[in-house]
């Protein structure tokens, strides 16, 4: 049984890279945000607007914990804040879990996120300067939790193929 869990800031490539890894490993792919949307029948943006971040974080924790306690093998992409709330970072240390932090610099994240703000509730109303500052501040605040992952893979200036190859070598 293997649970491969990806953490990192929004825009770090968790969804894209974890899908590629799941395919290579022939394991089920789970995206925590999609699981939340399916359970609530609402988009993440709508949940934040109608129910608030605390409701979202509680539900996120519940679904994350449920998956981590199954006997199933899978590859999971978590939300950017998942490891930072309700001691979720402790689940990254489980014996049956291989946790990977996809680490990206503030500049890389800014370049990836500046044209993708509308679908991201925390970024939607920020201008470029505010976005850059927000990313830097958030990354600093979340760094401790991201670094609880068992492995760190720096993604700056690397192709998806190179990142996946690096992850494959960690998993073998």
Describe the model.
The chain is of the alpha/beta class and 172 residues long. 51% of the residues lie in helices and 14% in strands. It has 8 helices and 5 strands, in the order βαβαααβαβααβα. The protein has helices spanning 14-25, 32-40, 44-50, 53-68, 88-91, 106-113, 128-146, 160-171, and strands at residues 3-7, 28-31, 74-77, 97-103, 151-154. The protein has a 5-stranded parallel sheet. The longest helix is centred in the C-terminal third of the chain and has 19 residues, at 128-146. The relative contact order is 0.21.
Mean of all residue-level pLDDT scores: 95
Shape: globular
Query: How many β strands by DSSP?
Result: 5
* Share of helix, binned: 40-55%
SSE topology sketch:
Layout: E1 3-7, H1 14-25, E2 28-31, H2 32-40, H3 44-50, H4 53-68, E3 74-77, H5 88-91, E4 97-103, H6 106-113, H7 128-146, E5 151-154, H8 160-171
Parallel strand pairs: 1-3, 1-4, 2-3, 4-5
